[in-house]
Design a protein that fits this description.
globular, mainly beta, about 150 residues, three-stranded antiparallel β-sheet
């Protein structure tokens, strides 16, 4: 199935990962300058703020993990806040219900959409990855989106 536009309803996490191994070792520095072969674009049309992103550990705590080297965390911010009201309901977050699009051509190789939405600020320890979509873009390059 060719994918260009996928609607996903998220809380506040978007990740693009190069899945080259899923261990917790420090990511090898030879991956630091990796450039994707596939042309990827940001998967949203609205304004987002990158909380964690970049190629160094100082810019992105994901950079120390091989399977998350290029992951980014993003949120929507209005007037200095990511939510309105108490922030105790998913609907309080500005990005809740926003549309995401596939970042490039590819095939969905795995997805999960049956995990109940987390209560904000609480982690489901049985389903840490939450709902997700994995797209194979070819050339051993994948994008992964998941919600927390």
């Amino acid at each position: 199935m060719k994918v260009k536009h996928i609607r996903l309803f998220i809380l506040f996490i978007f990740c693009i990962l190069n899945l080259t191994g899923c261990d917790d070792d420090i990511a090898p520095e030879e991956n630091l300058n990796y450039q994707t072969i596939v042309d990827l674009e940001l998967p949203f049309n609205s304004s987002w703020f990158v909380v964690w992103g970049g190629r160094t550990r100082e810019q992105n705590y994901h950079a120390s993990l091989t399977d998350q080297r290029f992951a980014i965390d993003v949120v929507q911010i209005k007037n200095g806040f990511t939510f309105t009201g108490s922030g105790l309901r998913n609907e309080d977050y500005f990005c809740f219900g926003d549309t995401l699009y596939a970042p490039g051509e590819g095939q969905i190789v795995e997805m999960e959409n049956l995990v109940p939405e987390n209560i904000p600020r609480q982690t489901d320890k049985n389903q840490l990855f939450g709902n997700y979509v994995i797209i194979d873009h070819g050339n051993n390059e994948y994008s992964v989106w998941h919600t927390l």
